[in-house]
Specification:
single chain, alpha+beta, Trypsin Inhibitor V, Chain A, 30 strands, Penicillin-binding protein 2a (Domain 2)
């Protein structure tokens, strides 16, 4: 009995083991098939195809990270051009988590919020735009299902994937705000909100010096189009990076493979205040004279740094705006401003002295059947003889032509060699890109086959004709006179900065260490002072400082004849201790052309306003105002710090009714009185009147990012005090 029972158990166990064996066999077979399939997928072309499909669904490779283009600053660190990220706003109606009921529930409130912020569309238009995007998705889904039911493997073009919601691109601050709007306050895979970033160029000072700073192409990838933006494009543009987008748990995330390298920053020599003075003075005169165009340049005598530069052309609508780089590129006969060159060459060669005299008579002189005329010749006035100094003062063409003929009629080559000796025929490269012969003086040379030298070239060249010199060269020449004879090249790009460190610091290139003899320089300087005191530029004389300079009036050659005038003035101030040199040129003004009355008056306005703003006065120039309150102004902010300081200074301090940490301070004749500053964790604090330390502390404590500009006390904040607080938003504060 027992034996039979054991046999049954043995058979039962054998059956169970057999079944387990069969299961193990099938599992091993299944595992083998998996391995074979995996191997097939890993090493066959089919596997490669499926990997590519999977990667397309979850990974987007080789996406370019745009580098931040370098900024351009004034010499005192004010922004002239910078890169600002802007965002194009789209909705992805095929987002995985987007739900129809939720969209229809919130679309009304979302549309109202958008219409209030961006009123170029009404709330109903925004609502229609969004709902139409969803309806297109539903229509495309229906077509896909119908094709699948019919067994048709035909892709339906998805038109509703990305729909642009806002017409214009928006800033990061605005992006943070719209992400708080109804429906868009969810994760992007549910809201469908997509912000496509691009870099845009912004000029905080508007059109100030815009032609010199230059422009970039609308597509920032193409880089600079003009001015400094083009000249130094390779440094400003930076180096692009590489990233890929990977889909993780239904959400796309960026993974950086190679970070982008920001471009270098450029610090220019420009001064924002002087630049503004220069542009306004020139524009006012152009409007007054209805001129075709004009240019004005002011440079520091010793350093060669250009502090202000304006190039204004009349547009088709009659307004004046930055157009061509006239300061560097305008090629015209300079006229009487060139007479100073003639006098310097002749004095240096010993041909004349300032007291030598020449007969001018009624202002007419014929040479080789061509008439040389002075500006007064129609009056019939016989002036007899004029000295060289008097000829410069009244701008006599007859005197200058007779000087040239006296010294160089038999050897005109020596005259041009004298101009070479000064340095006016040197070819120079400027910070503003130019084409062809622009920006290079074109002065004829005897026996030069390219530029015909006639029998009358010498006398006509002596008073500024039959030669072409851009304004920047005349500025450089007169600055050399002011700079003790040292000619330096004017420049604009001063420093190149990478990652906050100065990589390269520029200095003025010395074109000629000494343009003439010391005695010649002194004589020329005295003549230029005489132009202001007794000559054609009496109106340029200032009550604040002495001026030295020369007027110029030249006819404009066009198509083999002359039409219109180019009036100019170039000089420096103060004449006894020169600080700045200024050139002003005005093309085709209406009315009686006058280098002194037109260009000279622009010079005077720029010079006086610059002098008042930039020159430090002595103690004697600053008498005490008996009506001035003696108590120092106190900044708003932390009251305990302020009270401690008042105690140290022995100044009276009031007390608040209730203990408070942050206050506004008002002072009268008796006491500094604190007033509690209301702070609310959900509202933007008022930091106006505070110093930088207190303002930064309060704003950052509130969860805001702070962009600070200037020094002193806060005079303005970009987000109004008491506005609803959105943490992470950037607020700009300006201190003066």
């Amino acid at each position: 009995m027992m034996k039979e029972k054991n046999e049954q158990e043995r058979r039962k166990k054998k059956g169970v083991m057999g079944r387990y064996g069969l299961i193990v066999f099938f599992l091993m077979l299944f595992a083998f098939m998996i391995i074979v399939t995996a191997g097939k997928l890993a090493f066959s072309s089919e596997g490669k195809r499926w990997r590519e499909v999977g990667e397309k669904e979850t990974v987007i490779r080789d996406r370019v990270i745009l580098p931040e283009r370098g900024s351009i600053y004034t010499h005192d660190a004010r922004l002239l051009a910078t890169t600002e990220p802007l965002y194009s706003i789209y909705m992805d109606f095929w987002a995985d988590g987007m739900v129809k009921d939720s969209l229809y529930k919130h679309v009304g409130d979302l549309s109202i919020a958008l219409a209030k912020k961006y009123p170029d569309r009404t709330a109903s238009q925004y609502k229609s735009l969004i709902l139409n995007g969803w309806k297109m998705r539903e229509e495309e889904q229906r077509q896909i299902r119908e094709n699948q039911a019919r067994g048709i493997d035909k892709r339906v073009p998805i038109r509703s994937r990305y729909v642009k919601i806002l017409r214009r691109d928006i800033s990061y601050v605005d992006l943070k705000e719209i992400r708080t709007y109804p429906f868009w306050n969810q994760r992007s895979n549910r809201s469908g909100l997509i912000a496509e970033e691009r870099n845009a160029r912004k000029k905080p000072f508007g059109n100030l010096a815009t032609r010199t700073v230059g422009n970039v192409y609308k597509d920032l990838d193409k880089g600079g189009a003009s001015g400094l933006e083009l000249k130094y494009d390779s440094l400003l543009r930076g180096i692009p990076g590489v990233k890929f987008r990977q889909k993780i748990q239904g959400k796309w995330m960026d993974v950086v493979e190679k970070p982008a390298q920001a471009g270098w920053d450029i610090v220019t020599t420009l001064d924002a205040e002087i630049q503004d003075i220069t542009e306004r003075a020139l524009r006012e005169k152009l409007i007054e004279t209805e001129a075709e165009s004009g240019t004005a340049i002011i440079m520091d005598v010793r350093s060669g740094e250009i502090r202000g530069i304006a190039n204004l052309d009349r547009m088709s609508n009659g307004d004046y705006a930055e157009g061509n780089p006239n300061a560097f590129s305008y090629m015209n006969e300079p006229g009487s401003t060139f007479k100073t060159v003639t006098a310097m060459v002749a004095l240096d060669d010993g041909v004349i002295t300032p007291t030598d005299s020449f007969h001018v008579g009624n202002g007419l002189f014929q040479y080789n059947r061509r008439w040389v005329r002075d500006h007064y010749w129609r009056r019939g006035q016989d002036r007899g003889y004029l000295t060289v100094a008097e000829g410069i003062a009244i701008s006599s063409n007859v005197v200058m032509s007779k000087i040239a003929l006296k010294g160089y009629e038999e050897n005109p080559r020596k005259f041009v060699e004298g101009i070479d000796r000064i340095g006016l025929r040197k070819q120079l490269q400027w910070d503003v890109p130019l084409r062809g012969i622009e920006g290079t003086s074109s002065i004829r040379f005897p026996d030069d086959k390219q530029n015909y030298w006639s029998k009358t070239t010498l006398p006509w060249m002596s008073f500024g004709y039959e030669t072409q010199i851009p304004p920047i060269y005349m500025l450089m020449f007169y600055n050399a006179i002011a700079n003790d004879g040292k000619m330096i090249k004017p420049y604009i790009a001063k420093e190149f900065i990478k990652d906050g460190k100065v990589i390269q610091r520029m200095e003025a290139e010395v074109v000629n260490p000494k343009i003439c003899k010391e005695n010649t320089l002194k004589q020329v300087h005295e003549m230029l002072v005489g132009v202001i005191e007794n000559g054609t530029a009496k109106v340029v004389a200032s009550d604040y400082f002495p001026v030295a300079g020369k007027t110029g009036t030249a006819q404009i050659a066009s198509g083999g004849s002359y039409g219109g005038y180019y009036v100019s003035f170039c000089g420096y101030f103060p004449a006894d201790e020169p600080m700045y040199t200024i050139f002003v040129g005005i093309r085709k003004p209406k009315g009686v052309p006058s280098g002194g009355g037109m260009a000279g008056m622009v010079f005077k306005q720029i010079a006086e306003q610059t002098y008042i703003r930039k020159v430090q006065l002595t103690v004697k120039d600053c008498p005490v105002d008996s009506l001035l309150r003696k108590e120092p102004p106190l900044k708003n902010g932390n009251w305990s710090h302020n009270r401690k300081m008042l105690t140290i200074l022995g100044l009276p301090a009031g007390e608040t009714e209730e203990p408070t940490e942050w206050v506004k301070v008002k002072a009268d004749s008796a006491v500094y009185m604190p007033q509690p500053l209301a702070l609310n964790g959900s509202l933007v604090p008022d930091v106006r009147g505070m110093g930088a330390r207190d303002a930064l502390y309060l704003l950052e404590e509130a969860g805001l990012r702070v962009h600070l500009n200037g020094a002193g006390r806060v005079v303005s904040q970009s987000i109004s005090p008491g506005s609803r607080l959105v943490k992470g938003v950037t607020i700009a504060i300006t201190l003066k």
